[in-house]
Design brief:
The structure holds 2 protein chains of 2 kinds. By secondary structure, chain A is α/β, with parallel strands linked by helices. Helices cover about 40% and strands about 15% of the residues of chain A. In chain A, the strands form 3 sheets. Chain A has a 10-stranded mixed sheet with strand order 3-2-4-7-1-8-14-13-11-12, sandwiched between helices. A two-stranded antiparallel sheet of chain A has the order 5-6. In chain A, strands 9-10 form a two-stranded antiparallel ribbon. Classes of the chains: A alpha/beta, B mainly beta.
Chain lengths: ~450, ~180
């Protein structure tokens, strides 16, 4: 595999409704930003780019089949090669990885990844219906298809298994909303307290409105290239910031669409198939043995095996053996506060069952930001420094690429330039992970980006 | 859970309720008025979209026939005995075709939620309770509705409670032809 560089990114301001432009024109904003940032104009880039990957989730939201080619056309990318990818909430992450594959395999030297979703063209509850159609239409959807409901069932099981509390979940909401206060791209820039989160209208017990991400209109893009592609861009006059950002590993996992079908594996199978290198020590083995003795089974409905397998593969490819110590920040798919907690565990930032405590510990918070909380520990690995999906919004096909753009800026050390405020710059960020997640944990991608 | 009452201070936005056949436009087109068009507010129109699908339950059809006859059947891998509470024509481990087996009418609550909002289709039914039900001896769960408890009394203590299957007298041929109530302990 060849080295892949992530050289630029662009994000449209995510908002509840962008009626001022059509979706191709919003994609153009994200593309133009990424181009302008490296000092190129479209005709120059067009001469060099080998192809593109388009990302959007829902033909229902778009009410336009083949929406990808319309964006490709509007960007002026025809007749370059392109294809559309779709994998629910992980669509953007899959797009990023398909771009990576095109470069790593030698098929392309320069690849543009772009993604979008316009969710405001239907009313919110119809939008929820569209999203719920991404669950089994024979056995899940007709029972009361509602994604917040599916995730709330995972929460109640997580609470019963591990004693996770709603206040621990609310810590995630406070953190991500207050982070977003310093991110001009975010849809919701509000300061909330634990009480605000718990007092917000109940959506699906125990998840309140402030435990759940919002629907958005938006687009994002990233430019990936090989060593040769980098030389071509610079020869054409591009100014690629140093330090360069490399994509050092990708990983992807899957699981059964119907949550009811998730296996309940044995301790031995967990250690055979799913454990991370940092869980191989005697202490972790004893911890997990005790969990299994109490009746814990893996993954059940409380854990995302796809997220674990995506992490495991990405860490292996990037040579990461102790994620909490080696990764400086994570932009992960916090569609729900609870799924951020579940994902801490999948990604090995803590062990299964420790996510609630980890959420309230302070370890995943940003240094130097006042959250109005009494946090017992110092930040170690900032999770969702941008504000995540909960505060930035979740225009599905754009989300994973938004994470990639923010991660590129973190590793370049250019957050201050792009956000107009350096507060969210993770100090001395050398290694970041982006995590994109679909369905009830059906497709999950994890990509590792590093300075280098 | 908070008992704070929500005071609504924002009117809900809904579609519909207007007919529009024209909008203001410059009478004379010149450099200045053409440039002003860049400042025009976007035009939004409604596009209704309605479809009736003919959905086939395919190999899962006997399950729905069973519900309409007040019988809950699931699937079992014939050699390993791996048992699916939600029907599945082929085993995810062996790849072999499963066989039908009758399930008991009693199970326990594995996980649950109370939906206070929902997708458009289910909004009129809010609040409703979703449960993932465990059946003894089955390796997988079944998603259903729980009735007969107060949605405002949600507590994780509901997990592990025994439930009993009940069936609609008039089948709709949907998985909600079966629903659950708490069983007498």
């Amino acid at each position: 595999m060849r080295t892949v560089y992530a050289v630029s990114g662009g994000v449209s301001k995510f908002t509840k409704a962008r009626h001022d432009k059509t979706y191709p024109a919003i994609v153009k904003e994200a593309y133009d930003y990424a181009l302008t940032d490296i000092g190129l104009e479209h005709p120059q880039f067009f001469e060099l780019v080998d192809g593109t990957v388009a990302s959007y989730f829902s033909d229902h939201f778009a009410r336009q089949l083949m929406a990808g080619i319309i964006a490709q056309d509007y960007l002026g990318m025809c007749p370059k090669p392109s294809h559309r990818v779709e994998g629910g909430g992980a669509t953007g992450g899959i797009c990023f990885q398909e771009g990576w594959k095109a470069i790593a395999s030698g098929y392309m030297d320069i690849c543009l990844c772009y993604g979008f979703e316009l969710m405001s063209h239907v009313e919110t509850w119809k939008g929820n219906e569209f999203i719920a159609l991404a669950s089994d239409v024979s056995f899940d959807y007709p029972v009361g298809g509602f994604y917040s409901g599916y995730y709330a069932m995972m929460v109640t099981r997580h609470m019963a298994e591990f004693g996770t509390t709603v206040e621990q979940m609310a810590h995630v909401s406070v953190k991500n909303h207050i982070n977003a206060y310093y991110n001009p791209y975010a849809q919701k820039r509000n300061r909330y307290t634990i009480e605000d989160v718990r007092n917000a209208p109940m959506v699906a017990w125990p998840l309140t409105r402030l435990d759940i991400c919002v629907m958005s209109d938006g687009a994002a893009s990233t430019i990936l290239c090989s060593e040769e592609g980098l030389a071509k861009l610079e020869k054409a006059g591009a100014t690629i910031p140093r330090p360069l950002v490399k994509v050092t590993g990708i990983g992807r996992g899957t699981d059964a669409m119907r949550m009811a079908d998730r296996p309940h594996q044995s301790y031995e199978d967990f250690y055979r198939y799913n454990a991370l290198p940092n869980e191989m020590d005697d202490d972790s083995r004893a911890y997990y043995k005790e969990l299994w003795d109490k009746g814990f089974r893996y993954p059940g409905v409380h854990s995302f095996r796809a997220g674990r397998m995506g992490s495991r593969e990405a860490y292996k490819n990037a040579g990461i053996t102790d994620p909490l110590k080696e990764i400086d920040f994570v932009e992960l798919h916090d569609a729900y506060t609870s799924s951020e907690i579940q994902t801490y565990e999948d990604m090995g930032l803590c062990r299964y069952g420790e996510g609630g405590e980890f959420a309230a510990s302070g370890k995943a918070f940003m240094p130097g930001v006042d959250y109005g909380l009494d946090l017992p520990e110092e930040p170690i690995c900032s999770v969702n420094p941008s504000g995540g999906l909960i505060a930035c919004g979740h225009p599905v096909g754009a989300t994973g690429l938004m994470q990639a753009a923010f991660a590129i800026w973190q590793l370049q050390g250019t957050i201050g330039k792009h956000f107009g405020d350096p507060t969210l710059q993770v100090p001395d960020a050398r290694c970041g992970a982006i995590h994109s997640h679909a369905g009830t944990g059906t497709y999950v991608t994890v990509s590792i980006l590093e300075r280098g | 859970m908070s008992d704070k009452k929500e005071i609504v201070n924002k009117k809900e936005e809904t579609l519909g309720g207007y007919v529009l056949h024209n909008v203001p436009f410059p009478r004379e087109l010149n450099e200045e008025t053409l440039a002003l068009l860049k400042q025009m507010e976007p035009i939004l129109i409604e596009q209704p979209y309605s479809i009736t699908y003919l959905h086939s339950y395919g190999q899962d059809s006997p399950f729905f026939a069973g519900l309409s006859n007040k019988v809950f059947i699931g699937c079992r891998e014939p050699e390993t005995g791996y048992t699916y509470a939600t029907p599945r024509g082929h085993c995810m481990y062996s790849g072999k075709e499963t066989e039908w087996m009758r399930f008991p009418d009693e199970g326990t609550i594995h996980a649950f939620t109370v939906c206070h909002f929902g997708s458009e289709e289910f909004l009129p039914e809010c609040p409703f309770i979703l449960v993932l039900v465990e059946f003894e001896g089955a390796n997988t769960l079944f998603l259903g509705r729980l009735l007969g408890v107060d949605p405002d009394d949600a507590t994780t203590d509901w997990i592990g409670k025994k439930v009993k299957a009940k069936y609609l007298r008039l089948s709709k041929f949907k998985p909600t032809d079966v629903y659950f109530v708490l069983a007498k302990e």
